[in-house]
Design brief:
single chain, alpha/beta, Aldehyde Dehydrogenase, Chain A, domain 1, Aldehyde Dehydrogenase, Chain A, domain 2, 3 domains, seven-stranded mixed beta sheet, six-stranded mixed beta sheet, 19 strands, membrane, Aldehyde_DH_NAD(P), Ald_DH_N, aldehyde dehydrogenase (NAD+) activity
Length: 409
């Protein structure tokens, strides 16, 4: 019957990009959508308008305008787009706006791909290499000034190594920015005034202790890498996603406590980062759900081009990157083609059915290959095949051994 799976384009796709990595987070899904054969409308983020203009310039210069078009604008334009009928909507951004997108798609049963971020935890045990932890988590939280949806939002660290970890953070900050972060050409600024004030308010409202950094410059929208020690999951730096260069440390007594806290704070983060032994890492990965994870590093899993990237639960739905980008915008259409010569065999499915039960069972019902005790059973055809092929798998030479044994008697 030649069963096949035909990969069909979904149709017309809406892609709503994000400001923090405007090219990657907009053009990345676009590549998958057009590779799958869809037409696409791209809505770049208005928060990074210069990048949005360049994206439009690239698309209009390189792609067929009847297949891919760009719509610029902010909230009114986005709402107008969401009122239209789409075959899929891809959105990257906050969970709050993600819910708005999902609600707009629901009445039309439009499938969505949502990458929403989350309050991502890092786990640091006594068995972790603290020098490595500090270097990698500092990089993860200061790259792009921490405006990364997959960076850790807080670090659950064994209280016995808190002081040493802070020392290593201080050392790493001096290595990365020997003349200070503000003077470094490698250190970014916060995207706009609103984002700056939001992060500043989170720091102002914390009941924790600022151990390193803390300086800010509103005019430049600069926030120094800041290490804060908190003692409660109700602290402002944990109840919200900081989306900035704030390194929040929450001491714990053991890994079990860390796992419990992580599940209480956000049971489905976009990513998590365990630092410790193999056994401890395995326990974290089996106890806390997440969209992805990087063991002993910051978001390495996202840099591997062929790995699917996406959230789970409240951190999003669906995934893309590599082959997954093609699959995300494709309908897998199952197809069979039944030739006329099998009609004699298929005639048992037509009424009247009296007298056909035995034939129907023989033709369509496959018997299980195990008994009620769960033991493997073999039919006549399996035994014949087994001897013809001299066994399969670990019994590949079974027939040869049986023959040799018989001849040896």
């Amino acid at each position: 019957m030649k069963p096949t799976i035909r990969k069909d384009p979904l149709g017309c796709v809406l892609i709503i990009g994000a400001f923090n990595f405007p090219f990657v987070l907009t053009l990345g899904p676009l590549l998958g959508a057009i590779a799958a054969g869809n037409t696409v409308v791209v809505k770049p983020s208005e928060v990074s308008p210069h990048c949005a203009a360049v994206i439009q310039e690239i698309i209009e210069a390189a792609l067929d305008p009847t297949c891919v078009s760009v719509v610029q604008g902010s909230v009114p334009e986005t709402k107008a787009l969401l009122d239209e009928r789409w075959d899929k909507i891809c959105f990257t951004g906050s969970a709050r706006v993600g819910r708005i997108v999902a609600q707009a798609a629901a009445p039309k049963l439009t499938p969505v791909l949502l990458e929403l971020g989350g309050r991502n935890p890092a786990f640091v045990t006594k068995r972790a290499d603290l020098r490595l932890v500090a270097r990698r988590l500092l990089w993860g939280k200061t790259f792009n000034a921490g405006q990364i949806c997959i960076s850790q939002n807080y670090i659950l660290v064994d209280r016995e190594v808190v002081d040493q970890l802070v020392v290593e953070f201080e050392r790493a900050i001096k290595e990365y920015y020997p003349n200070g972060a503000k003077a470094s050409p490698d250190y970014s600024r916060i995207i706009n005034e609103g984002a700056f004030q939001r992060i500043k308010q989170m720091v102002d409202n914390t009941k924790g202790k600022i151990l390193l950094g803390g300086s800010m410059d509103e005019k430049e929208k600069f926030i120094e890498p800041t290490v804060v020690l908190v003692d409660s999951t109700e602290d402002s730096l944990i109840t919200e996603e900081s989306f900035g260069p704030i390194i929040t440390l929450l001491p714990v007594s053991n890994l079990d406590e860390a796992i419990r806290i992580a599940n209480d704070v956000d049971g489905t983060p976009l990513a998590l980062y365990p630092f410790g032994s193999k056994e401890e890492t395995a326990k974290v990965l089996s106890s806390v759900r997440s969209g992805g994870a990087s063991v002993n590093d910051s978001y390495m899993h996202v840099s591997v081009a062929n790995l699917p990237f996406g959230g789970v639960g409240e951190s999003g739905t669906g995934c893309y990157h590599g082959r997954s980008s093609f699959d995300a915008f494709t309908h897998q259409r199952s197809i069979t083609s039944t030739p006329g010569w099998v009609e004699r065999i298929l005639s048992i499915r037509y009424p009247p059915y009296i007298g056909k039960l035995g034939k129907y069972k023989a033709a369509s019902l496959k018997s299980p290959n195990f008994n009620r005790a769960g033991e493997r059973t073999y039919g006549l055809l399996e035994w014949i095949t087994w001897f013809i092929t001299f066994g399969k798998g670990p019994n590949r030479s079974g027939a040869a051994r049986a023959t040799a044994a018989a001849l040896g008697k």
